[in-house]
Amino acid sequence: MSDNVSDPVRGTVRGTAPVPLSVLDLVTVGSGRTASQALATSVEISRLAERRGYHRHWVAEHHSMPGVASSSPAVILAHLAAHTERIRLGSGGVMLPNHAPLVIAEQFGTLEALAPGRVDLGLGRAPGTDGATAAALRRTDRPNEGALGSPLLERSRELGEDFPEQLAELTRFLDDDFPDGHPYARIHAVPGPVQGPKGRPPVWLLGSSGFSARLAGLLGLPFAFAHHFSARNTIPALDLYRDSFRPSAVLDAPYALIGVSALANDDAAEARRQVLTGALSMLRLRTGRPGLIPTPEEAEAYAFTPAEREFVDSWLGNVIHGTADEVRDGLDALQKRTGADELMITANAHGGEARLRSYELIADAYGLPDGV
Question: Looking at residue 28, what is its pLDDT?
Fold first, then answer.
């Protein structure tokens, strides 16, 4: 059982960290490695994070990306739940437009039954892939009838788009509170409240721009911002979230975490060598050539064009890397600059060993207890 059931949103500060520290896991697959190995590494990371006092471990939904094995967050989270006892587990996030709200409510109701009090439901509005793959996933343009009459929808209608409608329908299924006469009043997400009083996963909204920031604020929900790939928008989005915030039954004050790309190593040069693999992988993805995460040797040998070098240098400028002390100082400065309530660290490198070592070194740098 989690040690934070009484407050399922706010994290626990440990050691000398300025705010709670958490893990964002893309289940990356390196060249010469397999998805099985990547998933085994995720289990090791989750166990390490639990032992060292990281607050939560989230996995992100991506599709049609050979180097990212996290296409099914609910399946991965069930596996992680079976190998951990206390750490919070969640989606960072499930891409709501890709799925019927009832299916998500059933999946996360099942996860909540498997790991009571430990599950977070982070939701995004992007597809987590390219347009063609998104069309293959969705195969429908049906309206979200389940949102009709929802107070949540009324609070967010001014934003436009249909994401608020999808969110309203999902929330109705999670709470099992469709009103009498509603078309879905006799439909229940199981496991869920229809079986008796129980908790349910807290809903987080994820974003990389202002839309979800404002929606999270209007609804009084916790907000997670993707600083690791949208750094220019971080402070404007957090400001918008805080300015838009309205107290709710979930939160009486804003609570925002940011995803941070960071990698620590015993040697600063090796840290740079490792993060270059992630930068080259992102370059290939952005230019329509997605693949497995390259090895450090492959990244070092790659002949970057001037334009490619500019992209990679810009990307690495947003990755905190170096020795443990250098990474700690970078994380402290970022938290102070943004006022984030929690830092969620993603460590992108070719091999699992480098990622595991990084999380251990960061925990040591902050004096996180060993064996929480």
Answer: 95
Burial code (b: 16+ CB inside 10 Å, e: under 16) for 278-291 equals bbbbbbbbeeeebe
pLDDT of residue 150: 53
Q: Please answer whether residues 200 and 120 qualify as being in contact, where contact means their C-beta atoms are separated by less than 8 angstroms.
A: no
- Summarize pLDDT for 57-95 with one digit per residue, the tens: 999 999 989 999 999 999 999 999 999 999 999 999 899
CA atoms of 5 and 366, how far apart (whole Å): 24
| DSSP 8-state assignment for residue 293 | B
Residue 186 burial class via C-beta count within 10 angstroms: exposed 0-12, middle 13-18, buried 19 and up: exposed
Structure tokens at 298: 């492959």
d(CA 352, CA 359): 11
Cβ of 297: how many Cβ atoms within 10 Å? Answer: 12
Report the greatest alpha carbon distance in the chain: 65
Cα distances (Å, whole numbers) of residue 359 to 21, 22, 229, 284: 10, 10, 20, 26
Output the DSSP codes for 141-156.
----GGGTT-HHHHHH
Phi, psi of 91 (to 5 degrees): -100, 130
Asked if the bond preceding 191 is cis, omega within 30° of 0, the reply is: yes
Question: Given this model, what pLDDT does residue 160 score?
Answer: 45
Residues of the chain with pLDDT under 70: 1-5, 127-131, 134, 138-161
Q: What is the pLDDT of residues 324-337, one digit of tens each?
A: 999 999 999 999 99
> 199 is written with which tokens?
């908790």
